[in-house]
Amino acid sequence: MKLVTAIVNKEDSKAVCSALLKEKFYVTRLSTTGGFLMAGNMTLMICTEDDKVDACIDCISRCCRQRTEIVPGTATMGIGLESTMPMEVTVGGATVFVTNVERFEKL
Ligand code: 2BA
After folding, report:
1. I want to staple 30 with a disulfide (CB 3.0 to 4.6 A). Which of 22, 43, 44, 98 is the partner?
2. Confidence (pTM)
3. How many CB atoms lie within 10 A of CB 12?
4. pLDDT in tens, 2-47
5. Which fold has domain 2-100?
6. How is the chain split into domains, by residue range?
């Protein structure tokens, strides 16, 4: 078993979840915040069989698109400093991590 953790844009999360559910994946959604932009995003946890990981990632990738975000003047730079000039940042489509699941049980 593998755990696919996908950080997706909030605006894409509904479409991604619907597509994953349609393809019979189990999904848990967590409301999260990006450390750089300090903006809300959505983290999806999908535990699935090894041979379904590629289908899962394909499904996520079909529903997520890249966006350009303008970082407001007060955004933190990750090192305690604050930017004073708005700047453009390219975000997403999705950031995906795949990890091994040693044990999976439903009790
Ligand atoms: P944020 O941390 O808010 O980052 C938003 C976007 O800002 C990133 O888009 C990237 O383009 C830029 N960015 C982030 N950190 C940066 C830095 N230290 N220097 C310069 N630019 C930086 P994405 O790479 O598409 O990431 C979207 C969201 O996915 C991130 O939101 C974060 O919540 C998550 N993420 C991305 N990479 C991650 C990682 N290695 N570990 C944990 N979370 C990650």
Report:
1. 43
2. 0.87
3. 19
4. 999 999 999 999 999 999 999 999 999 999 999 988 889 999 999 9
5. Alpha-Beta Plaits (3.30.70)
6. 2-100
